[in-house]
Amino acid sequence: MLPIEFKRFRRLRRSALLRDMVRETELNIKDLIYPLFATHGTGVKEEIASMPGVYHLSIDLLKREIEEISELGIPAVLLFGIPAVKDELSSEAYAENGIVQQAIRVVKEENPNLVVITDVCLCSYNPMGHCGVVHEGEILNDPSLELLAKTAVSHARAGADIVAPSDMMDGRVAAIRRSLDQENFTHVPVMSYSVKYASAFYGPFRDAAHSAPSFGDRKTYQMDPANVREALREAAADVEEGADFLMVKPALAYMDVIRRLKDTFDLPLVAYNVSAEYSMIKAAALNGWIDEKQIVLEMLTGMKRAGADLIITYHAKDVARWLGK
């Protein structure tokens, strides 16, 4: 005889099929965006030491990578470029034959249907490693907007489907949207890194993109990790300026921010599962401490549950294989 009445939640957990039927959040291959790092030269496939399984790829080898990505069913890539030369005006960022511009054209030749998103920033292209124009140790906001807009237009001209400004300069979405429209690229959406924190989770990426700042840090333009209301203000400004997607970066320590944006705005929401989030899991898996597959799927499902519609992740190829099976 049971002393009290109680709920029997386990009824819906008795079998895998039952659990699948009542699952509330579904991670799908179509949710994934895979970052790629294009570099000059030929025959270059250089593994990034702090990001096992992620490579710098020359344009010729990028073709093979796109073939694999397409076969896995991943719908989109996010392109980053490693320039041959850096200068104070970040010239290769918006050069007609810059590394990203070359990569866009190759990707589109290999698979015209793959969605090509380009990172729009200056940090990899100037010797200071900052995301805007630097003058006498100060990162200048307004002069940076012109170069960022030029970069976005050059990417669109090369064939990019979406441009994604990651610099965190004030007003960059408005500047980019205006320039795209003036150049008859009204059809090209802006995926704004709307909420980008001054995070310690970017270390391996800075190795990958050769973009570590040569002085100071990025706290004068990236956000304080302690702030949430500020995130809503940043996102609201981007919506007003014409953003088509919003993004939260990083993702793992900012699930609450993802949820707040999801509840507040009706634009598609992107979570960036960043480099250190990836590398921590890879390191633990290589040491045999965790089940990599289960951890990754749980983590990305959590991002979806928090409200992300799309996830940028270096795990994308592995996840596509796991979900495909």
TrEMBL record:
List of residues binding Zn(2+): C121, C123, C131
Catalytic activity reported: 2 5-aminolevulinate = porphobilinogen + 2 H2O + H(+)
Top-tier EC class: lyase
The protein's Enzyme Commission number: 4.2.1.24
GO CC terms of this entry: cytosol
One of the GO BP terms on file: heme biosynthetic process
Role summary: Catalyzes an early step in the biosynthesis of tetrapyrroles. Binds two molecules of 5-aminolevulinate per subunit, each at a distinct site, and catalyzes their condensation to form porphobilinogen.
Protein source organism: Collibacillus ludicampi
Binding site for 5-aminolevulinate 1: R206, R218
Protein name per the record: Delta-aminolevulinic acid dehydratase
